[in-house]
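Hey Z.,

So I finally got round to the histidyl-adenosine monophosphate thing we talked about over coffee. Here's the setup:
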Amino acid sequence: MTKIFAVPRGTSDILPDAVPLWEEIESKARKICKSYGYKEIRTPVYEDINLFKRSLGQTSDVVNKQLLELASSREDEGYALRPEGTAAVVRSYIENSLDGKESLSKLFYLGPMFRGERPQKGRLRQFHQVGVEAIGPNSTSPLLDAEMMALAMQLLKELGVRDPKLRINSLGSKEDKATISTWLREEFAKHKNELCDECQARFERNVFRVLDCKKEGCRQLVVSLVKNLPLSAESQHYFNLVQSSLNSIGIVFEVSPHLVRGLDYYTHTVFEITAEGLGSQDAVGAGGRYNGLVHELGGSEKVDYGAIGFALGLERIILARSPGLSLPVGINAFVIAMKDEYQPQGFLLLQQLRNAGISAGMSFSGGSMKSQMGKADKAQARFALILGEDEMKTQMVAVKDMQLGTQESVTIKEIINFLKTKIES
Ligand code: HAM
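And the result:
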C-alpha cells in the first residue's frame, strides 16, 4: 500500500477555511503595532545555533531540550530553527548598526517559531508569534515598560481574547540577579531534600526556575523566600515606577514574586499574560527587559543599551478567543454563463472584476443554472452575475443579491461601479 504522509508531529496545516481568521489576526496585529510606532522586521527562520545558546542561556529548557538543529555537512557551521524572535532581532540590530540610525528602534515581527517540545494542547513544535521589541542606547524608561504591557494587552483584547490577566515581577539588574542567585542557592541548600527531583537539578543549573515550580513541597519553601529576595533599592525603585506608570494608564496587573521566566536574558521587569480556556499551557504571551543582551551579543561596550519586548502565541490566542467571532470567508461575485458559448464573455467579465479589486469566481465546467447557483452559494458569493440569452443580446448582466434574493439588470459597462458602490456601502 502507498504510504500516506502525515503532517509532522506538533505542527498543523492552516486550511483555507481558517486562513481568513489568520489574515485578520495578522493584519489587526500589524495595524495596532504600527499605531504604537513600531515597524515590521523580517529575519530568517534559522540562525547560527550559537546565537540561541548565547542569548537564551545554556541552562534554559529551550536551548537544553528544544532546539531543532539543522543537519550540516560542514563542521564549521551549525544552524537551528529559531525558537523565538528576540535573539535574531538583537543580532540584526547590531549587524545593521540600527543604533546609529535611530535613538530607539521599535520593531515587531510575525512568523513561525520552532521548539522540539512534547506536543499537547496549546504546545506545538511549529507555532506562530507576534513579537515586539524596543531597543536603544539609554532607553531604559519605566514608561516604555508600561507602554509594552499596554500594547500587549490591547493586542490581546482586540484579537478577541477574553479577560487576559497580566502578572509582573522584577528580577533586578544583572548584579542583583547574581546576588539573588547566590542567596537562593544558600537558602535552598538548607532544604535541598525537600525540593522535587526536577528542582534539585534546576538548583544546580538555574536556581531561579525553582521559584515557579508548581509542586506543593517546592511551593511551600518558595513562598516564604520570595518575600525577602535581596533586590537592590535602585531596582526596587525602578519596579515601583513601572507599577505607578501602569496604574496611571489604567492597566490592571498583579505583582507575582514567583514569576521568573524560562529564558536567561531577562533583567528587571518580567511579565506574563494568561487567559482562560487554555488548560495547563495558559500563557498567551510573555516578555520583559533584557538590557544586557545587546552587549552579550557584541554591541558596543561604550553604550548603555536598554531593551524590552514580548511575544504573543497566535495559536493560543485563537484557542482563547471568544467563540462566535468567525469571519466571512466569501467572495464578492460569482459569474454564471448560462450556455457554454457565453463562457468567453463570462471569463472576460471575471478578469475585469478581479482587475478592479472585486473578488470573483466562476465555474469553468459550466452546467445548469441550478448547479452554478449552488457553486455560487458554496463560494459564499455576495452577488451572482448571470449572463443569459437576453443579457448577451442587450450587453447587460442580471445581478442577483444572494443575501436579499433580489435581482436587477445592469449594463456590462456599469457593472464594476455598481458592484463597488454596493460592496463599500
Ligand atoms: P516565550 O514565553 O518563550 O517568550 O513565548 C512567548 C509566547 O509564545 C508564549 O506565551 C506562548 O503563547 C507562545 N509559545 C511559546 N512556546 C510555544 C509552543 N511550543 N507552542 C505554542 N505556543 C508557544 C519568548 O519567546 C520571548 N522571545 C518573548 C520576548 C520578546 N521577550 C522579550 N522580547
